[in-house]
Write a structure and sequence with these properties.
The chain is of the alpha/beta class. It has two domains: 64 residues; 197 residues, 3-Layer(aba) Sandwich (Rossmann fold). The chain is 37% helix and 19% strand. It contains eleven helices and nine strands. Strands 5-4-3-6-7-9-8 form a seven-stranded mixed sheet, with helices on both faces. Helix 1 crosses helix 2, helix 6 runs parallel beside helix 7 and helix 10 packs parallel to helix 11.
Amino acid sequence: MAWTAGSLLAWAGTYLQKYGVSSPRLSAELILGKILDKSRLELYLNYDQPLNPEELAGFKSLLIRRRQHEPVAYITGVREFYSLELQVGPGVLIPRPETELLVDEGLKALADGQEKPRILDLCTGSGAVALALAANLPQAEIWAADISEQALSYARSNAQKLSLAEVNFIRGDLWSPLLSRGLFFDLITANPPYVEPGEWEILDPEVRDYEPRLALLGGGDGFGLIRAILQGARAFLRPLSTLLVEIASPQAEKAKTEAARAGIYEEISILPDLAGQPRVIKCLRSDYGSASY
């Protein structure tokens, strides 16, 4: 019997389900789409298309990787974020849908702002947030920082692929690469590592066994980098500018308390994601009048 796209997807979905793989049918569709260079819609429009031996062998080799719980995004090499197709792979965090909230709120914060806002994206990883902002704010000056050169290599590649090469990518630990640049920002976004060490072993194996610890573990109580961002941002924010930081849901009250301790924010709020879970802390810097930049 010749394997068609339809029969292969039906078999592969059941096969992956036996191994406890999340979203088994979707995984099979994305993997087969990579092998055949077709979208999911195109797969269904060509449901009866037979696979040749080379295509079948390629699909099975990738299916085995998925059976071992390797993330689909690493297998296919791409992940969609805010309608942008981003290249991802081992060594860089896979962008999550909930992180799109940073982009949504960043665009709102700058909707009535200056003609050429300056934006900073900390812990940029694949460049997802920075590039989504750049695609929607072509007039903006955007800086993006990460401690990982491996992650930055993906970010730079994504910028080139998306014709957004004007984004400035810099390497360093949080604020360190900015200390000598004399830059102040109208918007700062960040999706820092915030997983507590004690939670590491109970993470989904797709995350724990494949994605980089550097991009996930927040150190100590899991809140250290969030604390450093909320406190350190006061040296880089212009008057009436906005700071947006992704957090873990249980960290919401702690984040609000820490932001209040910084003493510079006139508005502090926690924003929910699409599932209704606390996801982003939003801080508006006060207008401290006498300073000018």
